[in-house]
Amino acid sequence: MRVMAIDYGDAHTGVAISDLTCQLAGYTETIHSRKREKVLERLGQLIAEYEVTELALGYPKNMDGTAGPRAEKAAAFRQELIEAHGLPVTLWDERRTTIAAHDLLLSAGKNGRQRKKTVDAVAAALILEGFLTFRSIRGETP
């Protein structure tokens, strides 16, 4: 069993997939496409290849906890994921993950161009880490 975390964006979608024990991010990728169909297709390929059984989709709430346009877009994409792949999809609060991803990459010495290529995959890995930690603390298994 594996969990996939998705940081869905307008032009770039970050993906992180857990290891078989659902303890760590074992694979990350950035899908560079503005077309939802292409993103859904690539996600389907990864779901099949890694035998993913559950999805955690980044849900970008406003800092005050309300759902704005970006969160509504994520909720709509959640429905598309369910319809396309038939897996359970949890919306996961992703506030500040992109900022944290930039900070991590900057501290690793990556310049702006290098960060832009991988920041979405790192953000997805942070979403996955938070989701897996929460599940572990609650004693839940995917």
Taking all Cα atoms into account, the compactness measure Rg is: 14 Å
Question: Largest sheet, order of strands side by side?
Answer: 3-2-1-4-5
Q: What's the order of the H and E elements? A: EEEHEHEHH
Helix share, percent:
40-55%
Number of strands: 5
Low-confidence stretches: none
Secondary-structure-derived class: alpha/beta
Main sheet overview: 5 strands, mixed
Mean pLDDT: 87
What general form does the structure show? globular
Strand content: 15-25%
How far apart are the termini? 7 Å
Q: Could you state the oligomeric state of the chains shown?
A: single chain
Total number of helical segments? 4
Question: Keyphrases for this structure?
Answer:
5-stranded mixed beta sheet; alpha/beta; 4 helices
What do these coordinates show?
This protein has 142 residues and is α/β, with parallel strands linked by helices. It is 49% helix and 24% strand. It contains four helices and five strands, in the order βββαβαβαα. Strands 3-2-1-4-5 form a five-stranded mixed sheet, sandwiched between helices. A hairpin with a 6-residue loop joins strand 2 (12-18) and strand 3 (25-32). The termini are close together.
